[in-house]
Amino acid sequence: MTDVITAFERSPDGGMGLARDMRVRWALEEVGQPYDVHLVSFRAKREPAHLRLHPFGLIPTYEQGDLVLFETGAIVLHIAEQHAGLFPDDAGARARAVAWMFAALNTVEPPILELVTARFAEGDRPWAEARLPLVEDRIRERLAQLSARLGDADWLDGAFGAGDLMMCRRSSGSGFGPAGRVSGACRLCRPRRSAARVRTGFRRPMGDQRRSFAGRGQSPDAPGNTPPARTSQSLRRSAVPDTTCHMSISLDGVVAGPGQSREEPLGRRGRELHDWHIGDPRANDADRVANEWLMRPRGAYVMGRNMSGPIRGDWDEDWSGWWGPEPPYHAPVFVLTHHAHHPIPMDGGTTFHFVTEGFEAAYSAACAAAGDLGVDIAGGASTVRQALIAGVIDELTLDIAPVLLGSGERIFDGVESFGFEPAEILHSPLATHVRYRRVG
Ligand SMILES: N[C@@H](CCC(=O)N[C@@H](CS)C(=O)NCC(=O)O)C(=O)O
């Protein structure tokens, strides 16, 4: 029997994983139970058909034959009780897992929800500014207590389980979202988030949420648009478009030499890493195939500002990239910067968009724009590093040049585990091209 859950058709968070159906999807993925997702519009969830499932007109709901459940905690508890994988066998450990589930819902989540109210519902009140720090302090205190309890452990009570799944809500563990600014203060938020994200059970529904947000077409709430109350998508096992990254790298792990400048955008000797695709007569068929991998069309790109140009600080001159009037991307490119800039449309379909809210925001925007072609992390080193730490790359191709640069920009500093295995290897005198796929 296939379970059915409901989720937002257009989630207010833009499909970033904050909506509560995320935990239910993740639980079902962890236990290997097939499920369908019915997407509900804001209007439809207030209609009688949805109110029969959820008395408060919210998502998620869960149907299994005649059984109808609402409340995320109750749904995850039911799934954990029915299937192996989320609860330990030992009765005491099981009771502790339930305690952590309640702690997530009753102790950690309330101050986070208070912040959502303070920011979004009461943000225009005269006292809002004075109230925010108090609310943020309460979240900080909870997260610090959680960090202290976790110590160096990955999970709350031994192996991963239902308690972790309920606690790993992205709003309490991400660098953005309602609690983002304060959760950055939680020492363990970053490693926990990475650990959560490398679990396949977490990654697939994250992609599904993004895809249903990006779901093309108008929201049913748009005037004059009256689709059926619930649209059904069979999201189970559907392919999430891959996120790719392709980097030329030296044998000693450097992707750009030191001293990057307008004259030497790849830094000192950085060009030597790219001989395999910029006209060296020793290039062979292996290099040509690797170049096809590099040039294959992608739906959107994420790029660091240093890669997009030599300007640092404020934008004090016109700059539209190194690539001339028609850059090779032919798709939206989301450039990470601390300095806002209006979008720059270029010939051939490339538009540079400038994102000031950090990597996660740029990556989410790229996912929403990319469609089925998926996202590529274009570089440079710092952006790739952030993508590796966030665990979003599915396919990493390294063109390893037989060159030692000694110093320069590295992509693996701070990346705790590699998490990929080789899927294809080609070589020439100029480079060993390794296409790695994420494991798990
Ligand atoms: N305690 C409920 C809360 C459900 C809830 O607030 N769902 C949100 C989405 S994350 C919702 O449907 N919001 C729409 C609304 O408030 O109208 C649960 O955990 O399931």
What keyword list fits this structure?
single chain, 440 residues, alpha/beta, Glutaredoxin, Dihydrofolate Reductase, subunit A, 2 domains, 9-stranded mixed β-sheet, 5-stranded mixed β-sheet, 16 strands, globular, binds glutathione
What does this structure look like?
With 440 residues, the chain is of the alpha/beta class. The chain folds into 2 domains: 3-233, Glutaredoxin (3-Layer(aba) Sandwich), CATH 3.40.30.10; 243-438, Dihydrofolate Reductase, subunit A (3-Layer(aba) Sandwich). 35% of the residues lie in helices and 18% in strands. The chain is built from 14 helices and 16 strands. It has helices at 21-31, 48-51, 72-82, 91-121, 128-150, 162-167, 170-173, 180-183, 189-198, 200-213, 285-295, 305-308, 359-370, 381-390, and strands at 3-8, 35-40, 61-64, 67-70, 230-233, 243-250, 254-256, 300-304, 332-336, 344-345, 351-355, 375-379, 395-401, 409-410, 420-427, 432-438. The strands form 3 sheets. The protein has a 9-stranded mixed beta sheet, with helices on both faces. Strands 4-3-1-2-5 form a 5-stranded mixed beta sheet, covered by helices on one side. α1 (21-31) crosses α10 (200-213) and α4 (91-121) packs antiparallel against α5 (128-150). The model is unreliable at 170-194 and 215-239 (pLDDT under 50). Residues 19-20, 58-59, 71-72 line the site of glutathione (GSH). Glutathione binds at residues 19-20, 58-59, 71-72.
